[in-house]
Specification:
The protein has 581 residues and is an alpha/beta fold. It folds into two domains: 278 residues, HUPs (Rossmann fold), CATH 3.40.50.620; 220 residues, Ribosomal Protein L25, Chain P (Beta Barrel). It binds adenosine-5'-triphosphate and magnesium ion (MG). Adenosine-5'-triphosphate binds next to helix 3 and strand 9.
């Protein structure tokens, strides 16, 4: 395939077999959109497009789900179609109403509204009737073998399966046993219902797959009405059909289930407008994990505060971190849809986040590691105000007043006692510009008992109020600062990668082995008073330091207490692109 064709068909430019490779970027149309367009033009659906997003309510949505959401809602919207939110609630032991609520909330936050909200459990009666139909057609049977035996007898890729001794039961006996299974006459694991397909099929999924198993479990919606629960394969495609799904989009690992998906529909005699399954690549991101099982482990083992910890790749985590829904959608649109699994750089996602905040975030000054500055020629006890621009990228954002006084804080690493030649910021005898302030010169330093610098003794030049010296003398650096008396103390969480390895768990390693023990660093920062106006969840740029989100759970009626660093200012994605040529 030529490169242009690959791009057109949506296959990523540098595909790689599996988790091993990293993928750069992609945009435009893709093979799913082409398929849907073609089906809309001359397919069996009369121009109708209907997709579904089918989360299992056993955890919270993560950015991988966001990719699926953007795809399912996106393609339907492009055709004026419908997208159903279907809770795939067929495993009662791990599912819960609280996940349902959280998923609905996260979906809404991402900016999508389902045409309808349904549950696979709504279809339990219909699925049961259909199972009886297959029994009557001689296409399903009750098997008395236990799970282990069934699994052993399934055979392997090179060995055929072994027919169950119960495979040739009469229709009447199967119907009777299935009704007794349904009525709760048997214990868990005593019997299952299986489709009767082919124990020698080259596709293992087709070797008489299980349709129902007995689970004496309370279901959060159907209560104790059922003791048999449908498997994924039996529930999924039939739920799609009941809803009128046209395109059932799922991730690549379901590729081998497609023949079974189609077989059930054929066996039930569904018409030409039956749903079709198409697979696309899962989203993988560097330096994190995107599987509910792994995320749960992070929570359970106490490596993070919870599913909504700002380091988590969950929708809730990203939201707390200050990632805008728009940036997540833009990222998903940009990476596109491919048929080959790969891994995207987390820096790419960050560059979408940064791009958006650069355009909209208010600028504020905060000092993370304060070093005191005393200005000896400032009138005693006087506080002045300086005018600072709120957002140079947005003329409508206006200006704010920043208090200035004779006692300030600057960043400790903006000063060096004995600077090397490339260090242009403050040092003894050196003059720098304070952003939106004056030029100051460091004349002396005070040191503590261990020789550490505890205070800088400076003077300011009142003539430099406009940011320039009237005599034209230059300074080589502009630094940020905060006036001491009016400063707010705020807790600031700085984040490093959650996993040190780009591909945690690659080559069969335990992903948890590369968990970064220092992924969070907490500081108490000094901030200018205008920070008090920032609402919970809002993101500001701390000048020179990055973008910071006020914690979502902070009390809106008090001054902010906690900020999360969303992302730094430097665009590492640009460097990665350069390296990758
Ligand atoms: P996990 O493996 O994390 O438990 P899952 O696939 O079991 O995820 P579901 O709640 O069943 O989670 O997923 C709902 C939908 O989201 C499915 O259609 C699934 O294909 C899709 N999805 C899940 N993870 C990803 C991902 N990383 N990239 C793209 N789509 C995903
Ligand atoms: Mg699943």
């Amino acid at each position: 395939m030529r490169v242009e064709d690959r791009l057109d068909s949506g296959v990523e430019a540098e595909p790689n077999d599996n988790e091993g490779g990293r993928v750069t970027s992609n945009s435009g149309t893709d093979f799913i959109r082409e398929l849907i367009q073609s089906d809309a033009d001359h397919g069996p659906y009369g121009g109708r497009v209907q997709t579904r997003f089918p989360p299992e309510p056993n955890g919270f949505l993560h950015i991988g789900h966001a990719k699926s959401i953007c795809l399912n809602f996106g393609v339907a919207a492009e055709h004026g179609g419908r997208t159903v939110l279907r809770f795939d609630d067929t495993n009662p032991e791990t599912e819960d109403e609280r996940y349902v609520a959280a998923i609905r909330e996260d979906l809404a936050w991402l900016g999508f509204e389902p045409s309808e909200v349904v549950y696979a459990s709504d279809y339990f009666d219909q699925l049961h009737r259909w199972a009886v139909q297959l029994i009557e057609q001689g296409l399903a049977y009750v098997d008395d073998q236990d799970a282990e035996t069934i699994s052993e007898n399934r055979g392997g890729f090179t060995t055929p399966g072994v027919d169950s001794p119960w495979r040739d039961r009469s229709v009447d006996e199967n119907r009777d046993l299935f009704e007794r299974m349904t009525a709760g006459e048997f214990g868990e694991g005593q019997r299952v219902l299986r489709a009767k397909i082919d124990m020698n099929h080259e596709n293992m999924q087709m070797r008489d797959p299980v349709m129902y198993r007995i689970r004496n479990q309370h279901h959060f919606r159907t209560g104790d009405s059922w003791v048999i629960y449908p498997t994924y394969d039996w529930a999924h495609g039939q739920s799609d059909a009941i809803e009128g799904t046209t395109h059932s989009l799922c991730t690549l690992e379901f590729d081998s289930h497609r023949p079974l998906y189609d077989w059930f529909h054929g066996a039930l005699g569904l018409g030409d407008d039956r749903p079709r399954q198409t697979e696309f690549a899962r989203l993988n991101l560097t330096h994190t994990v995107l599987s509910k099982r792994r995320l749960l482990q992070l929570v359970d083992d106490g490596h993070v505060d919870g599913w909504d910890d700002a380091r988590m790749p969950t929708v809730r985590g990203l939201r707390r971190r200050g990632y805008p829904a728009q940036a997540i959608r833009d990222f998903c649109g940009h990476i596109g849809i491919a048929r080959v699994n790969g891994t995207h750089e987390i820096e790419l996602l960050e560059s979408f986040v940064r791009r958006q905040h650069n355009a909209t975030a208010l600028r504020r000054m905060a000092v993370l590691d304060p070093l005191e500055v005393v200005i000896t020629n400032w009138p005693d006890g006087q506080t002045d105000t300086r005018e600072a621009i709120n957002n140079p990228e947005d003329d409508t954002a206006g200006v704010r007043e920043v208090p200035f006084s004779g006692r300030l804080f600057i960043e400790r690493d903006d000063f060096m006692l004995d600077p090397p030649s490339k260090f242009f910021r403050l040092a003894p005898g050196r003059e720098v510009r304070l952003r939106a302030g004056y030029f100051i010169t460091c004349n002396d330093v005070e040191t503590g008992p261990d020789g550490e610098v505890i205070r800088l003794i400076c003077t300011y030049d009142p003539e430099t109020a406009g940011g320039q010296a009237p005599d034209g003398r230059k300074v080589k650096a502009t630094i940020h600062w905060v006036a001491a008396e009016t400063a707010l103390d705020v807790k600031v969480e700085l984040y490093e990668r959650l996993f040190t390895e780009a591909l945690p768990g690659a080559d069969g390693a335990d992903p948890m082995a590369s968990l970064n023990p220092d992924s969070r660093l907490t500081r108490t920062a000094k901030a200018e008073p205008a920070l008090a106006d920032i609402a919970p969840g809002e993101v500001v740029q701390f000048e020179r330091l990055g973008y910071f989100a006020r914690d979502l759970d902070d009390d809106p009626n008090t001054s902010p207490t906690r900020f999360h660093r969303t992302v730094g200012l430097r665009d590492e994605w640009a460097n990665i692109q350069k390296r990758q040529g």
